[in-house]
Structures are given as C-alpha cells and as structure tokens.
Automatic annotation (TrEMBL):
This is Uricase. The lineage of its organism: Bacteria, Bacillati, Actinomycetota, Actinomycetes, Streptosporangiales. The active site is at 12 (charge relay system), 57 (charge relay system), 253 (charge relay system). Belongs to the uricase family. 5-hydroxyisourate binds at residues 57, 161, 178, 225, 251. It is an enzyme of class 1 (oxidoreductase). GO terms for biological process: purine nucleobase metabolic process; urate catabolic process. One of its GO terms (molecular function) is urate oxidase activity.
Amino acid sequence: MTVVLGPNRYGKAETRLVRVTRDGGVHHLKDLNVSTALSGDMEDTHLTGDNSAVLPTDTQKNTVYAFARRHGVDQIEEFALLLARHHVGSQPSIRHARVEIEEYSWDRITPAGDPGDRRHSFVRSGAGVRTCVVHHDADGRTTVVSGLADLTVMNTTGSEFHGFARDEYTTLAPATDRILATAVTARWRHASPDPPPGGSYAESHAEVRRCLLEAFAQTHSLSLQQTLYAMGRRALETRPEICEVRLALPNRHHFPVDLEPFGLDNPGEVFYAADRPYGLIEGAVLSEGAPGAGFAWD
Ligand SMILES: O=c1[nH]c(=O)c2[nH]c(=O)[nH]c2[nH]1
C-alpha cells in the first residue's frame, strides 16, 4: 500500500493579545484572540523531519505581539490581512496563510461625578464577540470573512412552530406563541478583499450586526429556519459589500412551567430555560451571482 501526505497546515492557535493605546490619560483597549495557520511546501517536515521550511509557531506568536506594537491594532480584518500577507511574503515555503481573530469588546466605566481624568477603567461588554477569518495565498488571492458570535437575543412573543412532519416518535405540541431565543453565530463573506467601499470594516460590521438584530426582532417567526433566512437576507439586501452570510442559531428552548399543581395558571409568564439538548439551525444565504467562495470558508 502506498501512503501519501494529505492537506496539512500548522500554526499558533489562540494567541491572546491585549493592546493598550495610551492617549494621555485616556486609554484604548483591544482584546484579541489570534490564530494563525500556514501551509505550503511542508512535505519534508512530515516525511523526513527536515524542518528547514517550517517557520516555528513560536515565531508566529511573536509576530502577533511585534506587529501589535509596530503597527497598532485597529480593525481586526486589517490586522489579520497584515499578518497573512507578512507570512506568505516572508518564506518561499509558505504559500498560504489563514488568520482568524476573535475580538472581545470592553465598555468604559464612567462613574457619575468622575472628574474626567479616569479613563482607564473598563467592563467586559456582553454584546458578543467580533470575529474574522482572512486567507491569503502566494498567488495574491485574498478572502475576508467577518462575523460575530455569542450574540444572545430573545423574542418573548411573535414566534410559532406548527405544521411540522410527524412520525411515531413525535410528541412536540404545536406552538402558536412561544419564546424564541438564540445565541447568534454569524459570518459574512466580503465580495472583495479591499476595504468596504465608502466605509470601514468598523462601520460595515456595525451595520451588518444591526441588520441581523433588526431582522430577528421584526420577523414574525414560523420557524427559526425562517428567521435565519430573514436575517441573512436583510444583511445582504442592505450591505452590497457582502455576498454570503452563514448563520448558526442554537434554539435556546424555553418551556412553560406547569403551575397547576400549585393552583396557579401560567399565561406565558413562567418558563424553564433549558440548557441542552438544543436545536441547531444552520444555513447560508447568498446574493444571486455571488463570486465563488474559493478558500474563504476553509
Ligand atoms: O424553529 C424551530 N425549528 C425546528 O426545526 C424545530 N424543531 C423543534 O423541535 N422545534 C423547532 N423549532
């Protein structure tokens, strides 16, 4: 039997970077989790242990910190592009870089009556995590996917689920008024690797996020699948710089509690928030004629 090496990549996962920018007494904070993965002419290290083509993962970690100091950190997509282009350009053996970044957001603490010079206190925001995945290869092809995760949302009415298929194992009662709650993971593919026209990645991200939230709130839902499509559609119709949205929506079930044993009714007011199992609804929504994704989702 002949054995051959298949696809492979290697890198430093989850380099935690906190970058403080000191603007006099006012500090700015970036809190990132950076993962780099490189691939290329890596047969020798796998087949013979010759590491001459391998830029150590330790170096990749160091590059994150050095670039944070040298170039600063503003938009995560731009920082990821900088790292990806650097690695592909730095060694002939490296032909492809994938850089994934998560950004945790912090809000300022501004105490009432504060004299104004204490601008270095922050509280971690509950507004979800911002994400991106950038690919760049030695042929100059680049893809940018932005996203968010852990954005927890709830509609306390305006959600139904009935008319579903049934078999001998189906016990679910049809629902005409239920809670719909989910923790949104959304990723969206930019049509071009260039910065969003007329704006920044910051503005683009804020607007896509707004579209997702507004569509969630404004859709009278007959299924979480329908809500997923409405969310992706709203983002694509509003933001021409993106061409595909992928969503993963865990259905955070909320079951009405039977209060009859206590002589109480429950007109949709008291719920048990189940932890697991949960339904997991996933899907992609694309603009018609969207350019090919290439390696964007790898
Ligand atoms: O919105 C829903 N979609 C489903 O596919 C499903 N399945 C289920 O048990 N509850 C729900 N809710």
